[in-house]
Amino acid sequence: MQLFSETSFIIDGPKGRENVRFRCLTLLIALLPAAVWAADPELPAGFRPLFNGQDFTGWHGMPHFDPVVLNAMPEEERAAQLKKWNDDIPLHWKVENGVIINDGSGVYLTTDESFSDYELLVDYKMLPKGDSGIYLKNNPQVQIWDYTEAGGKWKLGADKGSGGLWNNSPGAPGKDPLVLADRPFGEWNSLRIIQVGARTSVWLNGQLVVDHALMENYFHRDRPLLPSGQIQLQTHGSEIQWRNIALREIGTEEANDFLRAAAGTGFQSIFNGKDFTGWQGATESYEIIDGAIRGKVGKGDVLFTAKEYGDFDVALEFKLPPAGNNGLAIRYPGEGNAAYGAMCELQVLDSEHEKYAHIDPRQAHGSVYGMVPAARGYLRPTGTWNFEYVRVHGPRITVELNGFQILDADVSKVTEFMANSPHPGKDRTSGYFGFAGHQDPVEFRQIEIREETP
């Protein structure tokens, strides 16, 4: 049996804030496929099969197509389009002896389910001159192709091998694989892919070829990837075969560990989890609960570090109560309102709560308050720990939330301010790091800073 389900996310489009619903087929896993895989000793713990070894239950057809456009279609038009694509599957796809075979043409085989943070295992075998890949969150792609000179695509980078995020920008991390790991034609290759948010690592035949790279949004370069999306088996050029397709969804704690590793080394903890050693300011406005700093209800002043910082990176976890509000004080002078006197306040806000339905985009979570809006729709559910990684280098600030880069701003170039209120501190080059308050019990933990020396 198959059912339709919907997820939704917020984008800031040309007409303003839009709530986009992503409608997809959701599979109710049949008992028989699960039993088949349960008997397979090679399926690692925690994984479940996406392919039952017999037919295309749980899959549908979809070519290279912008999912935002698809889901903006009227329901009847979208259903007709999906039917047309599904009718194409038997023309080019078949299953033989537990293996999916495609003739090199047709729509891409696409999971009915959508996924957010996960580990994916896939085996593939291709013929000469093949050019294929795996779309993640409906986005191209982990590249698979003929790596030989005879394949005719060395000018496109095929000489470097498969496994790279080929549609990333030239020179961007992950675009080219770190090593050539392809096996000769006629042999099965094994891919292992971990994706948390847009952060992606890929192993090909046991060798790391992409290391925690941000996968770029091919269809909308100015936005992060969709919060969740489907997996697609791309194919064109020559026959390709697929087998042993399995997936393990990744929980919050493991996801945050993966993202902390992506941030790199050199971080130093600035909170001991026990008391306010190394902090100053409004210590009476905060309390320490279970190793986290939590704001007291009705208390709203700034808690900040004893040390000043110039250029730095900060990695931390935070948890919002419903409609919760706080902020990260960046290069704070030690007194006054962080939103105006500091270089900036980076919003920490449950901005998808109905209370904030009509806020200025420059007030949404991750925004440079009053100056630059962040992409919306990437917070985890209220009451869940989020991971945030912020880089402050000169006048430039980037914010990565749960593996999605939601802000990249040069505040020195800002000339328009919310409510026409100037921010006199925006050009500060050093100051304290802290939390701006705002009277809600927002929690912060595992707070680490990496200083950048001139």
Question: How many distinct folded domains?
Answer: 2
Overall geometric form: elongated
Overall pLDDT = 91
By CATH, the superfamily of the largest domain comes out as Exo-inulinase, domain 1
CATH architecture of the largest domain: Sandwich
Spans of at least 5 consecutive residues whose pLDDT stays below 50 are 1-17, 19-39
Counting DSSP E segments of at least 2 residues, the number of strands comes to: 28
Summarize this entry quickly.
The protein contains five helices and 28 strands. With 454 residues, the protein is mainly beta.
What order do the helices and strands come in, and which of them pair?
Elements: E1 2-13, E2 16-27, H1 31-38, E3 48-49, E4 59-62, H2 67-72, H3 75-92, E5 93-96, E6 99-102, E7 108-111, E8 118-126, E9 131-136, E10 139-145, E11 189-196, E12 199-204, E13 207-214, E14 232-236, E15 240-249, H4 252-263, E16 268-269, E17 279-281, E18 286-289, E19 292-295, E20 303-309, E21 311-319, E22 325-332, H5 338-341, E23 344-349, E24 386-393, E25 396-401, E26 404-410, E27 431-435, E28 443-452
Antiparallel strand pairs: 1-2, 3-15, 4-7, 5-6, 6-15, 7-14, 8-11, 8-15, 9-10, 9-14, 11-12, 12-13, 16-28, 17-20, 18-19, 19-28, 20-27, 21-24, 21-28, 22-23, 22-27, 24-25, 25-26
Describe this structure in words.
The protein is mostly beta strands and 454 residues long. It has 2 domains: 2-250, Jelly Rolls; 256-452, Exo-inulinase, domain 1 (Jelly Rolls). Helices cover 11% and strands 40% of the residues. The chain has 5 helices and 28 strands. Strands 3, 5, 6, 8, 11, 12, 13 and 15 form an 8-stranded antiparallel β-sheet that branches. Strands 16, 18, 19, 21, 24, 25, 26 and 28 form an 8-stranded antiparallel β-sheet that branches. Strands 4-7-14-9-10 form a 5-stranded antiparallel β-sheet. The longest helix is centred in the first third of the chain and has 18 residues, at 75-92. The radius of gyration is 24 Å and the shape is elongated.
